[in-house]
């Protein structure tokens, strides 16, 4: 697994995940990690609810965001990170490369939008001959864009792709008219809506909606990221994981109905301004779907990525025991 395959995680948010965060509490042997992206907000809310006495969970836990993709890679390799939210395809890749890991759940059905001037395009086909800033070549969300173009018969080579090293740079390209469109994850998309008012900024295409339409609405969306655990962690913390899954579901509902307060929790955890988080929550398609209950959605997504390029998944579809049943 090279650095490029991990770099998407930290870049998923506008301001990255450059500062580690841990909730101050009695020391706990359990730490759950995540990127500086919106799905990690649910971990922070779950921990906050526990601190406030609103959770039935007995086992305390810490929440941290890793400093860089290299920290995540090293942590997974040396065992210091045993539970973390990661892009789903990376979880498969790690498993196929020999790391004994399991996918617990999916925590977003898709965070990806194409932004541009309102009413400028109505389909991916309209991108042919146009320019778009895309962060992190050959990583999510670039892989999703490539896959959808292939499924819709769009000639990807006819799109003028301006690849950038970070999502924030892709936004800058668009704001400075160096590209007509930009492919962004929430909450950076919401930041773009705030900063691009003079450009009539709009979410001109939503990739989750395109994916669902391609499959006649039978798919819930793009299972973009979820909680990964090592087999050893699962064996030692089965009861904790079952309770965490339940608490994350409660935290999701709380977040959706208390977005202002949730955004303040997210500001501390993700180092992203609260207004951007609050604006992003309705568009982030957050979920806490047990992996075992959405196997068909997962296999559909993984099969699409495998057909695009088998190396994305480590040259194999997921092993039968990769999807964890709590």
TrEMBL record:
<protein>
    <recommendedName>
        <fullName>SsuA/THI5-like domain-containing protein</fullName>
    </recommendedName>
</protein>
<feature type="domain" description="SsuA/THI5-like">
    <location>
        <begin position="97"/>
        <end position="262"/>
    </location>
</feature>
<dbReference type="InterPro" id="IPR015168">
    <property type="entry name" value="SsuA/THI5"/>
</dbReference>
<dbReference type="InterPro" id="IPR027024">
    <property type="entry name" value="UCP027386_ABC_sbc_TM0202"/>
</dbReference>
<dbReference type="Pfam" id="PF09084">
    <property type="entry name" value="NMT1"/>
</dbReference>
């Amino acid at each position: 697994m090279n650095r490029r395959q991990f770099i998407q995680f930290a870049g998923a948010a506008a301001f990255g995940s450059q500062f580690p965060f841990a909730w101050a509490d009695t020391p706990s042997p359990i730490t759950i990690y995540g990127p500086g992206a919106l799905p990690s907000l649910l971990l922070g809310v779950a921990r906050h609810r526990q601190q406030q006495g609103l959770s039935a969970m007995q086992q305390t836990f810490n929440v941290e965001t890793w400093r860089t993709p290299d920290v995540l890679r090293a942590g997974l390799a040396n065992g210091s990170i045993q539970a973390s939210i990661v892009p789903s395809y990376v979880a498969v890749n790690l498993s196929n490369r020999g790391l004994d890991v399991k996918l617990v759940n999916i925590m977003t059905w898709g965070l990806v939008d194409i932004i541009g001037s309102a009413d400028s395009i109505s389909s991916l086909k309209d991108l042919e001959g146009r320019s778009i800033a895309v962060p992190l070549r050959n990583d999510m969300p670039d892989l999703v864009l490539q896959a959808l173009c292939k499924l819709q018969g769009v000639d990807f080579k006819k799109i003028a792709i301006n690849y950038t090293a970070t999502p924030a740079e892709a936004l800058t390209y668009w704001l400075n008219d160096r590209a007509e469109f930009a492919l962004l994850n929430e909450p950076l998309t919401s930041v773009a809506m705030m900063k691009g008012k003079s450009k009539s900024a709009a979410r001109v295409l939503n990739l989750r909606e395109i994916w669902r339409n391609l499959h006649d609405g039978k798919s819930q969306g793009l299972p973009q990221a979820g909680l990964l655990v090592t087999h050893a962690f699962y064996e030692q913390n089965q009861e904790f994981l079952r309770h965490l899954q339940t608490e994350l579901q409660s935290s999701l509902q709380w977040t959706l109905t208390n977005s202002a307060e949730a955004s303040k929790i997210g500001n501390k955890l993700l180092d992203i301004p609260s207004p951007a988080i609050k604006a992003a929550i309705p568009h982030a398609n957050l979920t806490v779907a047990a992996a075992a209950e959405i196997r068909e959605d997962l296999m559909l997504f993984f099969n699409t990525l495998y057909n695009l390029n088998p190396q994305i998944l480590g040259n194999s579809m997921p092993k039968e025991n990769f999807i964890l049943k709590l």
